[in-house]
Design brief:
- 65% of the residues lie in helices and 5% in strands.
- It is mainly alpha-helical.
- It has one domain.
- It has a two-stranded antiparallel ribbon.
- Helix 3 runs antiparallel to helix 4.
- It starts with a strand and ends with a helix.
């Protein structure tokens, strides 16, 4: 199980192309004290972060943007 924080959840809801199932799961976590997701879901979300990072995470000089840094941080957490 991977534990997320409120900031992680809000960021993913905002920038990732979530499936309805992922969106429902993240929404359900908002009211829980422990915001934990199963390992298989964390890998799926990590893959979405990787895809987004490759298309939106770097500027013209291949320097990570603010969004890119957050995506990299989430990848580290989600791939554990």
């Amino acid at each position: 199980m991977i534990t997320l924080n409120l900031s992680d959840i809000r960021f993913m809801e905002t920038v990732l192309p979530l499936s309805e199932g992922h969106r429902e799961l993240l929404k359900s976590l908002l009211s829980k004290k422990k915001k934990a997701i199963p390992n298989e879901v964390s890998e799926e979300l990590g893959d979405l972060c990787s895809d987004r990072l490759s298309t939106h995470g770097f500027d013209d000089f291949h320097t990570p943007t603010d969004e890119g840094r957050k995506l990299e941080e989430l990848q580290d957490k989600l791939y554990g």
